[in-house]
Every structure is written in C-alpha cells, then in structure tokens.
Amino acid sequence: MSTIILNGSPKGKSGNSEIFIQQFIKGMKTPCEVKYICKEEPRTLAEYVRGFDTIIFVLPMYIHSMPGVTMRFIECLEPSEPSENKSMGFILQGGFPEATQYKYAEKYFGSLSEELNRNYLGTVIKGNSATVYMMSNFMTRKLFRSLRRLGEIYEKTHTFDKGITEALKEPRELTGFTLKMMKFATKTGLINVMWDKPLKQNGVFDKNLDRPFI
Ligand SMILES: Cc1cc2nc3c(=O)[nH]c(=O)nc-3n(C[C@H](O)[C@H](O)[C@H](O)COP(=O)(O)O)c2cc1C
Questions:
Q1: Does residue 64 have its Cβ closer than 6 Å to ligand 1?
Q2: Per-residue pLDDT of the chain (214 residues; tens, 9 = 90+)
Q3: Phi-psi region for residue 213, left (φ > 0), alpha (ψ -120 to 50) or beta?
C-alpha cells in the first residue's frame, strides 16, 4: 500500500506542519514520500498523487479553513474509481485551542473524500499549535510522542489510531477556570500581542477592525 504525505502549508519546510510530518514519519520503519504543495504545479502534483493508494494531507488551519495553495490543489484532484479502494486522511493543526473550531474543515474533508471516491481515514485535529516551532523539548514531548505513535500505527494498519486522535482533540471546548483566564487575557489585550506585532511592524494596526468584505 503506497502512501504520500502532502504538506499543505504555504510555509512548506519552514512551518509547523513540517514539524508534525517529521514526527509522524519518525514513527515509521519506512517513511513515506513527502511533497510540498506550495512548491509544485497543482495539476502536475494532482496527476502524480493519483497513483498512490493513500494521500495524507498535513496542513494548518488558515481563516477557519485551509490555505489557498491547498484549496487550489484540491480543485485539481480527480475522483478515483470506486474499485481502486483508495483512501485519504488529514492531519490538521492550528492556533485556536478548541477542537470545536475545526469542525467545519473536518466536515469538508469527509465530504471531499466521498467526492473523490476515497475512503476517509478521518481528520486528526490538534489545536494550540501555532507556537510549536518555538516550544522547548519538554513542552512538545507529549505531542511528538503521540505523532510518532500515530505514524507507527498508521504504517502497520493504514488507519489513524482512534485513542490518539481523540486525545489530541483536547480541549474540545474551553470551560471553567481556563475559559475565565482566557477571557481575562482577552480583556487585558495580552492575547493580542502576537497578532498586533506584525500589524504594527507593517504600519496597518489602525486598520485592524476593517471589514473589507462587507
Ligand atoms: C493567515 C493565517 C490565518 C490563520 N487562521 C487560523 C484560524 O482560522 N484558526 C486557527 O486555529 N489558526 C489559524 N492560524 C494559525 C495557524 O494555523 C498556525 O500558526 C499553524 O501552526 C501554522 O502552520 P504552518 O506553519 O505549517 O503554516 C492562522 C495563521 C495564519 C498565518
């Protein structure tokens, strides 16, 4: 059974999706091929991946959905024949901590697999991942262990382990003390520091409440 991993981030090798991929394939005895959507001509890549039994997308959440480069590529994919028994799965990571934020993208991936006549392996969701690239070994230890194990089990069974997938989804929704802390941080403006910095650097901070599509 052949598998190809597609990195769906516009940042390619320098993004967090790549860190997820490297951990996932570390768990495998024979790591599978990885391609970078942002580096490829979409039609050529779509033709190339057609031959693989399974496509695994590892991608970030951008604006409650997927990056434009990945969307453009997905539009080039052709359905396989039902008799070919092909599959596809998704590993989706993003900044928002709550897994419920990712449910629309998850739903879309399920429908997409159906449309492309590929068995849906599911969507592994991991929030709170925007800072993975700068976290210490101690902070990433548990996540990386789960991703390696996910890769190891995938290689053996061609499925995403249910237990690991469910555990990575935590927290599904912020409640209690964590929610109170988050609300407090929002009020003080602390939560916006990371977002405000690039806006200020680019001289557009005063436009941060603009709604250009309305
Ligand atoms: C333009 C942009 C939009 C984003 N939108 C979301 C979002 O809607 N939800 C979310 O959870 N994270 C969002 N994020 C955070 C990214 O998902 C997160 O930083 C991720 O780890 C980036 O992965 P990458 O480095 O592989 O691109 C956004 C980041 C950027 C740059």
A1: yes
A2: 899 999 999 999 999 999 999 999 999 999 999 999 999 999 999 999 999 999 999 999 999 999 999 999 999 999 999 999 999 999 999 999 999 999 999 999 999 999 999 999 999 999 999 999 999 999 999 999 999 999 999 999 999 999 999 999 999 999 999 999 988 988 888 878 877 888 999 999 999 889 888 8
A3: alpha
Domains and CATH numbers, the chain: 3-173 (3.40.50.360), 174-214 (no CATH)
Residue nearest atom 15 in ligand 1 by C-alpha distance: 95
Pocket test for ligand 1, best of 62, 65, 124, 129 (most atoms within 8 A of CB): 62
pTM over 0.85: yes
- Ligand 1 atom closest to the Cα of residue 127 is 11
First to last CA, the chain: 48
Looking from the CA of residue 14, the nearest atom of ligand 1 is: 25
Whether 17 lines ligand 1, by a CB cut-off of 6 Å, is yes
Which helix (H) or strand (E) covers residue 4, if one does?
strand 3-7
My answer on whether omega of the bond before 82 falls inside 30° of 0, hence cis, is no
